[in-house]
Structures are given as structure tokens and as C-alpha cells.
């Protein structure tokens, strides 16, 4: 399965979510990553059992420079989740968040799959693992 994407931006997106999961979880805490094909989309879920986000702040968590009230003492700038949301939207996808303070957070990213590819192009891409087309990296 392939999605038409900017590999560098997707690396930033998932790197940020995974980094946050580690940063806001207790040492050795479980972090679950799941990717599944769901019709014309791929769904990627990153779930942790960290500090979670206060319910009253869930609507603001994707705002630039906003940091949760329970994050004092944890280094961060408040731009990461806003960047994540922007990257998802640039790829015509969506992001959903569920979180409970003290129990953890679950981010679900849904991105469209490029269904226009032929099976031959997919086979070629599997051999190369990455390739570029019209200036965009597809992975």
C-alpha cells in the first residue's frame, strides 16, 4: 500500500507524535503504534499511557504555542501539535485525539491512499523502497 506524500513532512509528523508519547510517559511506559488500511485511507494510531491532557484543554491542544497546564517542568515549545495538524491537513487527512488526564492520549491520523497507482508501479516502488515523481517523494 502506498500513499502520496511528502516523506520528510510525514517523518516530522510521526516523529513528533512518537517523541511526545515518550516525553509525556513514565520511563518504560507502553507506547502503542498501529497502522491499518481502511478502505481508501490508512489509519495510524499512536497511544500512550502518559500524563494525558486535561479535558478542558482538549479544544486548544492544536493551537500554536499552547501547552497543557499539567506540563510544567517538561521541556517543550507548544508548536509540535500545531505542526502535526498542519502536515495532516496538507496531505488531505484528518487527526483525532482522545485523552484523559493521568491515563494517556491516543492520536489517530487518517491519510488517503493513492488508489491511482498501477500494480506495476507498486512493485517497482517495493524494490526501490522510495522514489520520486514530479518532485514529490512517495513512500
Give the key terms.
alpha+beta
Highest-level CATH class: Alpha Beta
Strand order of the largest sheet: 1-2-4-3
What is the domain total for the residues?
1
Question: End-to-end distance, in Å?
Answer: 9 Å
Percent of residues in β-strands: 25-35%
Structural class: alpha+beta
The count of β-strands is 6
CATH topology: Heat Shock Protein 90
- Biggest sheet layout: 4 strands, antiparallel
Question: What overall geometry do the principal axes of the alpha carbons give?
Answer: globular
Q: What's the total helix number? A: 3
Indicate the low-confidence ranges by residue numbers: 115-126, 129-139
CATH arch. level architecture: 2-Layer Sandwich
Structure description:
- The protein has a single domain, classed as 2-Layer Sandwich (Heat Shock Protein 90).
- Helices cover 27% and strands 27% of the residues.
- It has three helices and six strands, in the order αββαββαββ.
- The chain has a four-stranded antiparallel β-sheet, covered by helices on one side. Strands 5-6 form a two-stranded antiparallel sheet.
- β5 and β6 form a beta hairpin.
- It is globular, with a radius of gyration of 17 Å.
Amino acid at each position: 500500500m502506498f500513499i502520496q506524500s511528502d516523506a520528510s513532512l510525514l517523518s516530522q509528523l510521526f516523529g513528533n507524535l512518537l517523541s511526545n508519547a515518550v516525553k509525556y510517559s513514565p520511563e518504560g511506559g507502553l507506547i502503542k503504534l498501529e497502522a491499518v488500511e481502511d478502505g481508501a485511507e490508512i489509519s495510524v494510531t499512536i497511544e500512550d499511557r502518559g500524563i494525558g491532557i486535561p479535558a478542558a484543554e482538549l479544544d486548544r491542544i492544536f493551537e500554536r504555542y499552547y501547552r497543557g497546564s499539567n506540563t510544567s517542568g517538561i521541556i517543550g515549545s507548544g508548536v509540535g501539535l500545531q505542526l502535526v495538524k498542519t502536515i495532516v491537513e496538507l496531505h488531505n487527512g484528518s487527526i483525532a485525539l482522545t485523552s484523559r488526564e493521568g491515563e494517556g492520549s491516543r492520536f489517530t491520523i487518517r491519510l488517503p491512499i493513492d488508489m491511482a497507482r498501477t500494480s506495476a508501479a507498486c512493485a517497482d516502488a517495493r524494490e526501490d523502497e522510495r522514489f520520486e515523481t514530479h518532485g514529490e517523494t512517495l513512500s
